């Protein structure tokens, strides 16, 4: 053995932010002059200093170095015991280094910071606060909360059990303040209160905050309602006092002028009983009944609307709606069938994707695909044909939907099924007749 070392104390204690010295005596056990390097093991380098860091000793000579420990006052330095070692390394014979061990005890310290966030909050009846508790010490704290000062007009809700806050962390504790009764009108009322925080060292911290209760009907709203009522009274006065007499006078003058014009044009006529209007007949112009083969419920074909002879000679304006739902990852179709003895001239249609579903939509007429849309690219889309699409009797106009994912309607939760609609518009005509062959 080339050297020996002796610690002045094998167990030392130090408070974070303080320091403690450990003398170490080193003796040259060899027969030549030797230099020794002193190294400290088991603790961070920034905590410790060695003075002097090296020694040069004659045979059988000895000297003392001082090891100083300075752990910082930080929550990252845990309280407790740490084993350290003092290693003496001979410069000529580094393989014969020796290590002497000791125990360094880091003492606990307690430091807690807390605040109520926000310090003041207003509400009609219930306000919620957050108590931020920062453990700046080096041991886990058990923190309890209580409301020490307040008012009987409000109630407080806090955790009943203590809250564990590990060192170097923040705990967020919820506090609810609720007024016992509503404040209907008047000025807002302030309710200051104090929260007591008690950590493990028993020293109580007080936190101040304020709850401001707002009235249900504020002064601004009362002023607005009064202004609206005054405006309404002014408008009523203008109507009954100025505008209504003028309207009645103008209407009476217009009727008298029209009667005078008719008398001057036709001459006086003897009164005659008012004729009874004839009953409407299906053959009367514009009286043709509407057609449509829909069911009028979600998931079928809606009722068709009709116009008069505006569709052209032998035809009538016609419209029909097809609406139905489709399950996710499924497909479905609905059709409108042209009645027997009629031809449907499809001039335009509208497809509607009100929910913003995802998938595909295909419109076919008489087995021929007219158009295919990706649902996610539109909410509604219209199609107009310069030349009408002719759909013969008993043929179908079909809407086919493949639902990949239902959408989410505005101001509503996401739908569980896809929902699409097809609105057809055109003219129903009689099919062309073939003249009989001549003999």
Automatic annotation (TrEMBL):
Keyword list, A-Z: Membrane, Transmembrane, Transmembrane helix
Residues passing through the membrane, by range: 221-242
Organism: Micromonospora rosaria
Domain of life according to the entry: Bacteria
InterPro entries: Ig-like_fold
Protein name: Hydrolytic protein
Gly residues bias spans: 287-315
Ranges annotated as biased composition (Pro residues): 270-280
Region described as Disordered: 258-318
BP GO annotations: carbohydrate metabolic process
């Amino acid at each position: 053995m080339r050297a020996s070392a002796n610690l002045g104390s094998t167990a030392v204690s130090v408070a974070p932010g303080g320091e403690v010295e450990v003398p170490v005596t080193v003796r040259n056990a060899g027969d030549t002059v030797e230099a020794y390097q002193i190294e400290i093991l088991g603790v961070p380098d920034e905590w410790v200093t060695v003075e002097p860091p090296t020694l040069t000793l004659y045979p059988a000579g000895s000297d003392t170095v001082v090891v100083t420990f300075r752990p910082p006052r930080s929550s990252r330095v845990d309280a407790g015991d740490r084993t350290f070692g003092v290693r003496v390394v001979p410069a000529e014979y580094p393989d014969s280094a020796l290590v002497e061990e000791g125990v360094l005890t880091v003492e606990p310290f307690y430091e807690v910071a807390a605040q109520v966030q926000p310090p003041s909050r207003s509400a009609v009846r219930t306000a919620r606060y957050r108590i931020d508790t920062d453990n700046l010490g080096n041991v886990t704290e058990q923190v309890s909360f209580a409301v020490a000062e307040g008012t009987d007009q409000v109630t407080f809700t806090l955790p009943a059990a203590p809250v564990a806050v590990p060192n170097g962390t923040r705990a967020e504790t919820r506090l609810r303040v609720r007024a016992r009764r509503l404040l209907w009108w008047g000025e807002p009322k302030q309710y200051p209160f104090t929260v007591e925080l008690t950590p493990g060292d028993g020293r109580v911290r007080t936190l101040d905050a304020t709850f401001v209760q707002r009235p249900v009907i504020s002064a601004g709203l009362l002023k607005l309602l009064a202004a609206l009522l005054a405006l309404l009274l002014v408008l009523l006065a203008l109507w009954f006092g100025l505008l209504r007499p003028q309207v009645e006078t103008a209407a009476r003058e217009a009727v008298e002028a029209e009667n005078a014009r008719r008398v001057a044009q036709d001459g006086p006529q003897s009164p005659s009983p008012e004729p009874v209007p004839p009953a409407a007949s299906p053959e009367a112009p514009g009286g043709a009944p509407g057609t449509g083969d829909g069911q009028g419920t979600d998931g079928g074909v809606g009722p068709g609307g009709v116009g008069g002879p505006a569709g052209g000679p032998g035809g009538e304006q016609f419209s029909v709606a097809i609406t139905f739902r489709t399950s996710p990852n499924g497909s479905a179709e609905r059709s409108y069938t042209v009645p027997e003895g009629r031809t449907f001239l499809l001039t335009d249609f509208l497809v509607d994707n009100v929910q913003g579903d995802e998938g595909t939509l295909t419109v076919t007429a008489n087995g021929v695909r007219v158009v295919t849309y990706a649902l996610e690219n539109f909410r509604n889309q219209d199609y107009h044909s310069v030349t009408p699409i002719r759909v013969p009797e008993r043929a179908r106009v079909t809407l086919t939907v493949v639902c990949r994912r239902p959408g989410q309607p505005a101001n509503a939760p996401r739908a569980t099924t896809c929902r699409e609609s097809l609105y057809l518009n055109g003219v129903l005509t009689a099919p062309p007749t073939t003249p009989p062959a001549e003999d």
